[in-house]
Amino acid sequence: MQVTPYKDSEQQKKQQVEQMFDHIAPKYDFLNHFLSLGIDKLWRKKAIRILSGFKTDYILDVATGTGDFAVAASKLKPRKIIGFDISEQMLHVGRNKVKRLGLEDVIEFRKGDSEAMPFSDEQFNAITVAFGVRNFENLENGLKEFFRVLKKDGVVIILEFSKPRYFPMKQFYLFYFFKILPFIGRLISKDSSAYSYLPASVMAFPDDQNFLSVLQHAGFLQTRQKRLTFGIATIYIAQK
Questions:
Q1: pLDDT of residue 191
Q2: How would you write 114-161 as a 3-class SS string?
Q3: CB 127 within 8 A of CB 151
């Protein structure tokens, strides 16, 4: 059964995801950094260090949200980064952020569906995604789109939540994720579902070797992973 943000809604998952992120966009950055104790910034830096070993002239940042990963990738001095997302309100926050940082010439934002992207075949050297692929309605369709728009020898860097395996981190993680995080998220974002959907979507996501298998099934020949902070998050690297 597919996990969706609003259980009583008759909308498709992607429409619910768009609605959810439009609603929480004003508080998203604050909650992201607060609820992760700022560790998400370190995870992005590690992902960018891995990305620095590849060609990065043209980068597509999928599920860009407010553009944090795109901003981090700008340090690699690419010619262009396109931040792509389904939520217009998240993109609005991102555009203001990029303008404030003076990065308008490098980072451009576009709205659309990650499972049917309006880009040419083999258009990008690299694709980045942070905490976004688990929100796809059809994960394999989205990854096949990545493969299509990526140049030969290009790389996909995916940063995503994963599930710790061992005591005591596993038990602490589950308690925090299902009790503390939803309570604080509801209190600040005023969305009663968004921060309950987050842990549910992480539990449903095929992480670890399962996700590497999905990447391979989508066409990627070289895949590997780097688990972070006792397995709370994972960086997946896939090459075409």
A1: 84
A2: CCCCCCCCCCEEEEEEECCHHHCCCHHHHHHHHHHHEEEEEEEEEEEE
A3: no
Q: What was the pLDDT predicted at 1? A: 63
Q: Is 144 exposed, middle or buried (0-12, 13-18, 19+ CB in 10 A)?
A: middle
- For residue 70, being part of any structural domain is answered with yes
The encoded tokens of residue 44 equal 């992005």
* pTM to 2 decimal places: 0.95
Among the residues of the chain, which ranges form H helices? 13-35, 39-51, 68-73, 88-101, 139-149, 169-175, 181-189, 194-204, 209-217
CA distances for 105 relative to 99, 109, 222, angstroms: 9, 11, 33
Show Cβ contacts of residue 185 under 8 Å, excluding neighbours closer than 6 positions. Answer: 31, 35, 191, 194, 195, 196, 198
Range(s) of the domain holding residue 209: 13-239
Radius of gyration of the chain (CA): 17
CB within 8 Å of 27: residues ≥ 6 apart: 188, 189
Residue whose C-alpha is closest to residue 79's, from 57, 60, 110: 57
Q: Specify burial of residue 186 (Cβ count, 10 A radius: 0-12, 13-18, 19+).
A: middle
What number of other Cβ atoms are within 10 A of residue 206's Cβ? 12
If you ran DSSP here, which 8-state letter would residue 214 be given? H
Instruction: Indicate if the pLDDT at residue 132 is higher than 90.
Output: yes
Question: For the domain that residue 203 is a member of, what is the CATH number?
Answer: 3.40.50.150
Q: How many domains does the chain have?
A: 1
Spatial strand order in the sheet of 80-85: 107-111, 80-85, 58-62, 124-130, 150-161, 233-239, 222-228
Kindly state whether residue 5 falls inside one of the protein's structural domains. no
